Amino acid sequence: MSKPPYDPATEGAKMSFKGAMSYGDYLHLDAVLAQQHPLSTAHDEMLFIVQHQTSELWMKLAIHELSAARNALKSGNMPKMFKMLARVSRIFEQLNNAWDVLRTMTPADYSQFRDALGPSSGFQSYQYRMIEYVLGNRNANMLQPHEHVPEVHKLLSDELNRPSFYDEVIRYLFQELDGSLDHMPAPQLRTPHEAEPEIQARWKIVYEDVDQYWTLYELGEKLVDLEDYFRRWRFNHVTTVERIIGFKRGTGGTAGVHYLRRMLAVELFPELWHLRGEL
């Protein structure tokens, strides 16, 4: 006869975990906490590794939420999609907070282990690239750093071959306002999304009659909120890099701060920002 499952309401705090799943077992903490391998004796290298590893975990969750949000939008489940978008914004708030910890590292601290990084660099993060691709900032040239890992290259390439999340938003916008997709611009699958007058005109209709188009208005504001946090993440990245290495080239060969500053000008949902000057 099998033993009944543990009931915390009647048995209280469990103290013995022989034959039972513990907190560490569920989270596979032995494996997670064994993945920090500094390549130098520098004290601050552990900070650098942990900050970037935890950021990658948050990005994994962001991709999970964005993928589900896109599916929810396609199926018309707007409340579920709104909840997921709100969560992604909060994820980027966490990613922003992580820069505050990294900025406790000084140039002298970083110089003690920078050479150990070799040509590795954050711009090679395929999860960050996936987030950009899902949202609509699509630069096919950025597939190249991932050619040495075929399964990752395929994941990113497959994303470039499907409409982005913002493409699906635009489809929903035109369907709700026009009742058809006849005048909808073609999705920009393998190039960064650029502002389209036809799209901005539809958003203007929404923002000038909020009561009638409340769901579309809420969607627009959720996207602006998300991009607001995303822009802050980029800005914090720039200031952290400048504070630690100045204007040196990045470890991966990029122009460092100069490259990151150019990225600040990228707009994910340009029509939603541009129309504000017309309202």
Describe the 3D structure:
The protein is mainly alpha-helical and 279 residues long. It has a single domain (45-278), classed as Methane Monooxygenase Hydroxylase, Chain G, domain 1, CATH 1.20.58. Helix content is 59%, strand content 0%. The chain has 13 helices and no strands. The protein has helices at residues 8-11, 23-27, 29-32, 45-75, 78-102, 107-111, 126-135, 150-160, 165-178, 197-207, 214-245, 257-263, 270-274. Helix 5 (78-102) runs parallel beside helix 11. The longest helix has 32 residues, at 214-245. The chain is globular, with a radius of gyration of 22 Å. The model has no long low-confidence stretch (mean pLDDT 92).
Largest sheet: none
The general outline is globular
Share of helical residues: 55-70%
Structural class category: mainly alpha
CATH topology: Methane Monooxygenase Hydroxylase, Chain G, domain 1
> Roughly what fraction of the amino acids lie in strands?
under 5%
How many beta-strand elements?
0
User: For the terminal residues, how far apart are their CA atoms?
Assistant: 71 Å
Order of helices and strands: HHHHHHHHHHHHH
What is the total domain count?
1
pLDDT under 50 segments (min length 5)? none
Based on the structure given, which CATH architecture is correct? Up-down Bundle
CATH class assignment: Mainly Alpha
Number of helices: 13
Report the mean per-residue pLDDT as an integer: 92
Indicate the radius of gyration in whole angstroms: 22 Å
